[in-house]
Amino acid sequence: MERIRFKDWLNERLPLVGHLESFLRQKTVPRHKYSFFYLFGGLSLFLFGIQLVTGILLALYYSPTPENANESVRRIITEVNFGWLIRSIHVWGANFMVVVVLIHMFSTYFMKAYRNPREFMWLTGSVILLLILGFAFTGYLLPWDTTAYFATQIGTEIPKSIPIVGDLVVTLLRGGDEVGAEALKRMYTIHVTVLPITAIILILFHVILQQVLGTSKPIGIEERKPPFPFLPNYVYRDSIAWTGTLILLLGFAMIHPQELGERADPFASAPTGIRPEWYFLPLYQTLRIVPTRVLSLSGEMLVNVALIVGLTAWVAIPFMDRKADREQQDPLFQVVGIVLLLYCGFSIILALLT
Amino acid sequence: MFNIKLAAVINRSFALVEPSFGVRISMFILIAFILIVFLVLLYLRMQEVDKQSGIK
Question: Are strands A28-31 and A293-294 parallel, antiparallel or unpaired?
């Protein structure tokens, strides 16, 4: 009897598989001294997949009400088989993801991969980063323990000083004046529906654009020949990076599992030393060093306005760096990137030390 | 009663719920070992396909 290969069997019924394979076999990845940084895009996707799977598993047992939230997370840790591990992977995975996406974004920035014709890749990538920070912010309240509660109380207070829309943003997030049952319900809904759906659509768009436009090569870098064929050579590199990251993630999750604090008591006074997660520390530290009033204006309002202007400028960089389109380096943008990196690094260290 | 206690011990020993530090670290070493073997195999295969493509 003639044996039919599975690939041929599948291709007969799903001709798209064959087309995809031949497309990926033709695709190449530039080979130069910074090629290593290309791995971070795929790695972000891998970590997003881990977050999605562990998040779905946690949602099976989680209950988003102030009465049950903390108890349901405790049940996940103490009663559900491997619940402690799934939760720990989800929490550590969020931290890993922020690190990997930041490396991906800054390497894209310094290699000027945002230049023509990849402006939309930069735009979607920037929005995806904001969504990931949104995931982290909304997910933080869900265990409903003392730290999460008071950190969210402070965190949701920050947008209040934004001119015109500040109060509306706070009400939208909290569903009332204080962080309570409504806020928890809203954070949970945003965390498990709004953000994942938006993120999946944008990631799909980002990945499809990457396949269509190909991988960008940094300006003025000598490319080695031949380039990496994507399939199979680069896929092996991706797989090695994914496996290595998985080992590291499991190490953190198993050796240092995320602990759960006592159930939040909204009537208790806020414990001392509450600070946000490390990726929000640059904003937190800026709010701490800016005086309460600057030239009769609220310091918090000025920081918020500066943040919005800064983020808008960051997203619009491909349209401002015109030299990059002519394959030229603009030292101004290099300096801006380095200053931003140093500021974030120092403010995180300073916030952790003080 | 005895069965319940036994089940709790088994659950903790197999890292199902709230395992001790020792159980967690042993479990990690076992999984990491398997993944590192997989990593080495991937690396060797990558070297092979690189040679075939003229990259190395």
Answer: unpaired
What ipTM is given for this predicted complex? 0.88
Number of A to B CB contacts under 8 A, please give it.
Answer: 63
Nearest CB to A232: which of B24, B31, B49?
B49
Nearest to B39 among A243, A251, A255 (CB): A243
**Interface test with chain B among A27, A236, A258, by most B beta carbons within 10 Å:** A236
- Total structural domains within chain B: 1
pLDDT tens by residue, A208-241: 999 999 999 999 898 998 999 999 999 999 999 9
CA distance B42 to B23: 29
- Kindly list the residues from chain B whose CB atom is less than 8 angstroms away from the CB atom of residue A88: none
pTM exceeding 0.90: yes
CATH code of the domain covering residue A72: 1.20.810.10
Asked if the structure places residue A217 within a domain, the reply is yes
* Whole-number Å distance between alpha carbons of A328 and A337: 16
Q: For A250, which of B19, B32, B49 is closest by C-beta distance?
A: B32
Single-letter code of the amino acid located at A292: T
| Domain assignment of residue A112, yes or no | yes
Q: Using CA coordinates, name the residue in chain A closest to B7.
A: A79
Helices (H) and strands (E) in chain A, counts: 16, 4
Tokens of B11: 């659950």
